[in-house]
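Dear support,

I submitted the protein below through the web form. The confirmation email said the job was done, but the results page showed an empty box. After a refresh the structure appeared. I'm attaching both so you can tell me whether what I see now is the final result or a partial one.
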Amino acid sequence: MALSEQQTAQSYQNIMEPLVHAEIEKQLKFYPKNLKAYINKVEVATYALNRLPALYASSRQGKEQQHRIAQRKYKEEITSAVRRAIAAIEK
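What the results page shows now:
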């Protein structure tokens, strides 16, 4: 990857991604260890993220603003999307 491509790739972030990953970890805490081992977290995250709006930001201030929006406006949707994703991946 060329330097300019790498800089571009690292210059923005979908704020939903870390929030979804945190919610996956939170929900999987309550799963039995043997069942948790069979759940592919990447598949769960992909399933959930495809059902949530993207909230991209490119600056620290923008990331903080999008994070506040996500926590206020989409908290319940994130929880629900992850719950549905885990159920879908379990099947």
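Response: this is the final, complete result; the empty box was a page-load delay. The helical segments are 3-9, 16-28, 33-36, 41-49, 60-73, 75-90.
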